Amino acid sequence: IADKLTTDDIIEVTATSTSELEVVLTVTGPATIEGTTITLEGVAGTVTVAANQSGNEEFEAAEEVSITFEVTEPIVSAIDPTPISIKVYPNPATDWIAVEGIRSGMARLQVINLDGHMVLDQQVQASDRIDVTQLSEGMYLLQTTQENITTTTKVLIH
């Protein structure tokens, strides 16, 4: 049995013996068994399924056989459904630009020319003015990264 998630459905198992005597299945860990159906309890842990065949006057008892598998929590990623909207002003700009839409704290601001070269890379806050006097006239791509989300905006420098 492969490892499972706490949210997985039931697991059907079968066990047979060469003597054709009844094989009794038991489960330990965060699961239950009824007949050949294992139901997970929805919590993480190690599950062991043991198979026993007790024998009779014709056949000796079989050695217990067991298997184990892990039950783990699914990985959940939370993504903020609110998109990040970045605005740059003034656009076109000559001396400075400001970035509107930085949610909180710092954001990484990168200015990339149309040849693909990064010409400016700095940390900014929402209230910062970014000096662009060292940039040549032309179109640039402004990439802003915050909360692991990168947005790209065009800015024209005159």
Structure description:
By secondary structure, the protein is mostly beta strands. The protein is built from no helices and 14 strands. It has strands spanning 4-5, 11-12, 24-28, 31-34, 37-40, 45-52, 65-72, 87-89, 96-100, 107-113, 118-124, 129-131, 138-146, 149-157. The strands form 4 sheets. The chain has a 4-stranded mixed β-sheet with strand order 1-7-6-3, with no helix packed on it. It has a 4-stranded antiparallel β-sheet with strand order 11-10-13-14, with no helix packed on it. Strand 4 and strand 5 (37-40) form a beta hairpin.
Physical arrangement of strands within the biggest beta sheet: 1-7-6-3
Helix coverage percent of residues? under 10%
Q: What is the CA–CA distance across the termini?
A: 66 Å
Mean pLDDT: 91
The largest sheet, given as strand count, sense and whether it forms a barrel, is: 4 strands, mixed
**What series of H and E elements makes up the topology?**
EEEEEEEEEEEEEE
User: Total number of β-strand segments?
Assistant: 14
Outline: rod-shaped
Strand content: over 45%
What are the salient characteristics of this protein?
48% strand, four-stranded antiparallel β-sheet, mainly beta, 14 strands, four-stranded mixed β-sheet, 158 residues, single chain
Write the layout of secondary structure elements.
Elements: E1 4-5, E2 11-12, E3 24-28, E4 31-34, E5 37-40, E6 45-52, E7 65-72, E8 87-89, E9 96-100, E10 107-113, E11 118-124, E12 129-131, E13 138-146, E14 149-157
